[in-house]
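Q: Could you predict the 3D structure of Galactose-1-phosphate uridylyltransferase?
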Amino acid sequence: MNTPRGARRTDTELSDGRTLFYYDPLDAPVRVPLEDTRGLPAPKPQVELRTDPLTGDVITYATHRNTRTYLPPADQCPLCASKPGNPTEIPDHDYNVAVFQNRFPSFAGPGQAEVVCFTSDHNKSFTDLSQGQARLVVETWADRTAELSARPDVEYVFPFENRGREIGVTLSHPHGQIYAFPFLPPRMRTLMARAREHQEVAGSNLFADILAAERKEGTRVVAENHTWTAFVPEAARWPVEVHLYPHRQVADISELSNSERDDFAELYLDVLSRFDGLYGDPLPYIAAWHSAPVRVDRELGYLHLELLSIRRAADKIKYLAGSESGMGAFISDTRPEDVAETLRKVGS
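A: Sure. Here are the predicted structure tokens for Galactose-1-phosphate uridylyltransferase:
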């Protein structure tokens, strides 16, 4: 059993040897985990990494994932708590937050892939969580980030959530994932290169300067509190895109103070409610944490969350066409200032 800063963690093992972590509030009863009775065979993931000679990008081949669970009915959801006659990935009959090594991982050996179940309630989404429940998820992200970052085979820790079938979600239970990359992902390589250039020219942190400019200009700010600001970036790629920045530069989630964790939970739930109020129904989205790299250029990083949706109208989805997919040149149907104004009005 381990105790993170603001949660009680209980470690156990699934029948195939994978690790499972329960995260409970500090004042919750001590958890005695139930045994996984499924008798699963030891996993044998098939993962291969190749480097594209044209770009230097690392491409991961995980062919075993083609057989992963796909849109099961609610009564057969593998992320729900176990019930008599329906054992799942989580043996206990109830839980607050649970994390386990993915049965169909994108990385194995070097790196790791974990599943983060936000709640045992199958019919909720992150938007429906109380601030206390959301805060517990933040504690979970912080603890897993710290532990995974300490591994010698990990270069980047990436907590994220995909929501909605339009995004490609294969399990509807409210959950996210954490990829502990054994390499620096292409987007972070690009961001760190830009941050390094900015530091050399301006003598300041690129992300801090972007945040300061957005707060000063104000027209793209959606919401803010004492320690965080949410804004639509000036050059947003996606139809609905909001970035959440702490006012203090930190490298990753584990470095956030207690008040910063509180304020993030409050602001994030506010922004998610605005997303769902935009068209009157749950908005499909990707929530992607951007931390500093574990080792290289760590001082140039600046923790922030990028939240984006592919829905460009109430009944229209933005698909990546030739320009975006073929050349990486985005063409947007929405203007950042208009999106920000609309999201501000949703909460008014």
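Q: Anything worth pointing out?
A: The helical segments are 131-149, 186-202, 206-217, 258-278, 322-327, 336-346.
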